Amino acid sequence: MGERNWSIGAWQEVAAGVFRLVAQPASVNVGLVVGSEAALLVDTGSSPDQGAQLRAAVQQVTDKPLAAVVVTHDHFDHAFGLAGFGGIRTIGHESLEQTLQSPGAADGARELGFDPATLAVPETLIGVADAVELGGSRVAEIAHLGVGHTRGDLIVNVADPAAKDFDGVIFAGDLIESAGAPFFGPDSSVDEWSWTLDRLYSLARPGVIIVPGHGDPVDRDFVRDQRDTVDAVRMEFGRLVGDGVAQDEALARGNWPFPAEHIAGVVATAYSEIRAQAAQQPGAGDRPTLPLA
Ligand SMILES: [Zn+2]
Fold first, then answer.
1. What's the 174 CA to ligand 1 centre distance in angstroms?
2. pLDDT at 180 > cutoff 60
3. Cα 232–235–238 angle (5° rounding)?
4. Residue 161 C-alpha to ligand 1 middle, in angstroms?
């Protein structure tokens, strides 16, 4: 795709020894955490070539070895650069073994102009949590706080308890967006996303800097507000299902907190999630309940 812009921006320091840059074509944030012994990269860009370019760009900031690369989820702009990190420990959620080898991922690679056979899966697949020591007291804690933007979202919590004037940084992937409204696709969970953000908010202490998947870093109040926005979407889908509004009328009939194009892809998923939940818990959905004696 000759006309696509594949440029990567300059590193910006968001906290002591923690950086981000913006990579095109999707304006994705790529993170870099530097410790006294080693460095860790968060997300890999949109192609194997771009991954290799980002790997080289680490040397603009540090000569410490890259100990690990974490992908926050399987979307192209975060994970399609994995193959650029041969010989380095790569980490992702266990669901990526399937999703990054799916026909959908292959189509995405072709559309971006490269051979799907060069897509790589992270070598370390995690279900819940992992940690990478970077020297001194600096550690990158990697966790799956629950499903939300996708079924395999990971966050990276950078802690450094002995460091002065360092209140922590959390890379949130696309669970948080500050460049625009959060994006719901067919792989998002309308039902769970706000609960996952509750957990993210509890993890975020005052003073922490949160780096979203797209857009400038934010604070914990922003997480709380975006949690409420995401929860408003969940409740609106609950109302529509409860009122018997047909799935193909949901976008037009719903009262959404942001442009409906951000949720167009998730309507079918949301309807089946909410119906499944109502079937599991009679009384929580649209069924009549018996009065308790
Ligand atoms: Zn995404």
1. 5
2. yes
3. 150
4. 30
Alpha carbon of 163 to ligand 1 centroid (Å): 32
- Ligand 1 centroid, distance to 230 Cα (angstroms): 15
**What are the residues whose beta carbon lies below 5 Å from ligand 1 (ion)?**
75, 174
Polymer length in residues for the chain: 293
H or E stretch covering 19: strand 18-23
pLDDT at residue number 283 = 55
Ligand 1 center from residue 244 Cα (angstroms): 30
- How far is ligand 1, taken at its centre, from the CA of residue 73, in Å? 7
The Å distance, Cα 274 to ligand 1 centre, comes to 22
Structure tokens at 166: 């360092």
The alpha carbon of 144 is separated from its chain's Cα centroid by a whole number of angstroms, namely: 10
Question: What SS3 state is found at 176?
Answer: coil
Is pLDDT above 50 for 165?
yes
Q: What is the pLDDT of residues 59-106, one digit of tens each?
A: 999 999 999 999 999 999 999 999 999 999 999 999 999 999 999 999
In terms of pLDDT, which residue wins out, 178 or 289?
178
Closest by CA to 144, choosing from 173, 178, 107, is 173
- Encode pLDDT of 24-36 as tens digits: 999 999 999 999 9
